[in-house]
Sequence to fold (133 residues):
Amino acid sequence: MKNVVYIYHTTIKRKEMETFGNYVKSKRFERSITLRNFCKMAGVDPSNWSKIERGILPPPKSNIILNQIAEALSLKPGSDEYNTLFDLAIISYIPKEIIPENVLNKLPVFFRTTRGESPTEEELRKLIDILKD
Fold:
């Protein structure tokens, strides 16, 4: 008798795509960095940064500042975490009225492809299906 392995894959759909501010805040918490210490390390203003994490202000556009943030969070250049930081910063400047949320959620796959990384075949198919609609 052959061994049969059943793999169940469930997808939990989030209400909204992760935001830049939430992403940075979660990375800060993972590394046990307080808001004030993070701001000192990244060279950003604490009161404005708090507003960015809460989604009141947009993320910085400057690659210099984004690199300082990545460094403060110990994100290695080229890593998935590092690229996600930059991807979420870029995506936050695209008006949600222009592009449907399901397409916005797939932009990281597009960004990985433009960076020369290979998305999975399933990710590409999903992106193509969404863009066809």
